[in-house]
Design a protein that fits this description.
It is a single chain. The chain is of the alpha+beta class and 164 residues long. It is 26% helix and 27% strand. A hairpin with a 2-residue loop joins strand 1 and strand 2. The longest helix is centred in the N-terminal third of the chain and has 12 residues.
Length: 164
């Protein structure tokens, strides 16, 4: 691509580009945007913001070390939703946000090391790069131009297909 065409190409906007840089004073405003832009329920526990998994919102989690192929597969089939890396007691895990579009499968029916979190579970939200107590970070940040979430069935199918 020529430099002239590269300059004319419209930049893509991400949530990070649309919102001002994080300062401790603006952390609340930044996280509050998740609720305003995406309609997500955000709860604060002291200085830490959390995403409340309720009203059909869920997260499919898997170990970070094995998340590469499933995330690539979800992107390939058009079902890549926002995904974050979480520090847990069992080590780093990736959580892909999804919409419950049917029944949540039983634990025994899920692929090995995959869990579905829902019904009031609180996920720590990334609040900014300057925090010393970061427990989560976006792998695929939410996009204000693509506010829908993939269906749970599609995410689980994409993960199962990547394991084959």
């Amino acid at each position: 691509m020529s430099p002239q065409l590269a300059e004319r190409k419209a930049p893509t906007m991400s949530l990070d580009q649309k919102l001002p840089p994080i300062t401790l004073d603006r952390a609340y405003d930044r996280v509050d945007a998740y609720g305003r832009l995406f309609g997500w329920p955000v709860r604060w526990r002291g200085p830490q913001p959390f995403l409340a998994l309720e009203n059909g919102l869920c997260a499919v989690t898997m170990p970070k070390l094995s998340a590469g192929p499933p995330l690539a597969r979800l992107d390939l089939i058009g079902c890549a939703g926002p995904a974050m890396m979480l520090q847990t007691q069992r080590g780093p895990r990736v959580a892909v946000l999804a919409e419950i579009d049917g029944l949540v499968p039983l634990r025994d029916d899920l692929p090995r090391d995959v869990e579905v979190l829902a019904w009031g579970t609180l996920l720590p939200l990334p609040a900014g790069p300057r925090r010393s107590d970061i427990t989560s970070e976006w792998i695929t940040a939410p996009d204000p131009h693509r506010r829908w979430l993939p269906g749970l069935d599609a995410v689980l199918s994409g993960i199962a297909d990547a394991d084959r």
